[in-house]
Each structure stands twice: as structure tokens, then as C-alpha cells.
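Suppose you are handed a protein chain with no further information: no name, no annotation, nothing but its sequence. What can you learn? This example shows the usual starting point.
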Amino acid sequence: MSNNYHGIIINASQKDQSVFSNIKIIGKHEVPKLNWILYKVEIDSNNIDKLLLKLQDNMFETKYYFHFYRDNELIIVFKDKVFKAGADKSTWKEAIDHGKLSGIPEKQLDFYPCRIEDEKY
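A reasonable first move is to predict its three-dimensional structure. Written in C-alpha cells, the prediction is:
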């Protein structure tokens, strides 16, 4: 079991981009047609709660989420709510339903990657 969480945060979800200067970025993937950068980050488990709240507070109001994962643990964060789930998609229903109600297209609610083994960038 790793002590660190990995996560994916979309640059466009954050009001103040300087928030990324205090986060360990271990990869990035650009999505030009959406003008997004998906940052893959690594967070020490001792800092996860504090950073989660800081990022959540810095989020724009709608249509975004970010997620962190470690082993079989998945934390899905919307501006107004946090969900804890597992790597198994059967545990995602409540978070997916909330995301759809927030205006996020279902195809974007894939929480991928949700395991270190699935990382590609």
C-alpha cells in the first residue's frame, strides 16, 4: 500500500492557477479542443485533506470535479460534495448521478485513471 495519493486535476477547474505551484505534478495531458490541461499529481497522505479542501474552495462553481486515488480508494471531489468510492465502477453511481445533475456529461465522469496501474501519462 502506497502512502501517496495520485490524482487528476483539470487546470480549468481552478480559479487561481497558482494553486498548482504547491502541488507535485508528475505528468500532464493537454486536451487542445477543450483548452484543458489534465495534471497528474502526487499528494502525501498526510496532506490530502488540507489540499482537498483548498482545491475545492478554489474550484469554479459548476461542471468540474477532480479525483484522487490510492490502491483501491477513490476520492471524487465536486465543488459542493465529496464522494468516497473504490476502483470498481459499481461504487461510482452516486458520484456519477451527482456529476450529471451538476451538468457534467456522463462520458466525462469516468474517474480515469483510478488506480496507479492504469496511469498512462
